[in-house]
Amino acid sequence: MYVTHDHALAAPAHDTAAVAAELRDRAEITDALYRFGLGQDLKDKDLFASSFAADAELDFRPAAAKWGARPPVMSGRDTIVTTILAMFTGRVDTTHQVTNPRITVDGDTARLTAVVEAQHLLTADPATRALLKNLYDVELVRHGDRWVIRRLRIDNSWFTGEPAAIFG
């Protein structure tokens, strides 16, 4: 489920071309998750959508289960983008911080594990907030010269505040 290798790069150190290619892939893989977070934070539909494959799946159920919610799995880039931005725009302010990315690449597919802290607060009542510390399990695919999320599973390590007030 999570990427737990005891080293970062797979390419042999003496093969500088392979190392450079792998580092580029890793930067683009991590960037897909950065686009996911910042796209939400800025309510930037194009940036947010650029993080997903057309057939993407977002599973927030493991995180939501921690506070008793049962959302459906979201399928399809357009559905994910429309649903999340409609839920947040004009109602919820967010900030996402991505840390501890661990990546494994296998040709045109990759896995990414990361810790993401997400702060959410109601725009009309900033005292109503939820701070979530989540583990992300991400499957990605190569799309041209960048990487996009095909499957994202979000689990929650801990939270403070009122997630039910944020997510409904």
Secondary structure tally: strands: 6
Return residue spans where pLDDT drops below 50 for at least 5 consecutive residues.
Answer: none
Secondary-structure-derived class: alpha+beta
Overall shape: elongated
**Head-to-tail CA distance between termini:** 28 Å
Spell out the blueprint of helices and strands.
Blueprint: H1 16-42, H2 45-49, E1 52-59, H3 61-65, E2 74-75, H4 77-88, E3 92-106, E4 109-122, E5 129-143, E6 146-161, H5 163-167
Parallel strand pairs: 1-6
Antiparallel strand pairs: 1-2, 3-4, 4-5, 5-6
Briefly say what this structure is.
It contains 5 helices and 6 strands. The chain is α+β, with helices and mostly antiparallel strands and 168 residues long.
Describe the protein's architecture and organization:
- The chain has 168 residues and is of the alpha+beta class.
- It has one domain: Roll (Nuclear Transport Factor 2, Chain: A), CATH 3.10.450.
- 32% of the residues lie in helices and 42% in strands.
- The protein is built from five helices and six strands.
- The protein has helices spanning 16-42, 45-49, 61-65, 77-88, 163-167, and strands spanning 52-59, 74-75, 92-106, 109-122, 129-143, 146-161.
- A six-stranded mixed β-sheet has the order 2-1-6-5-4-3.
- The longest helix has 27 residues, at 16-42.
- The radius of gyration is 16 Å and the shape is elongated.
- The model has no long low-confidence stretch (mean pLDDT 95).
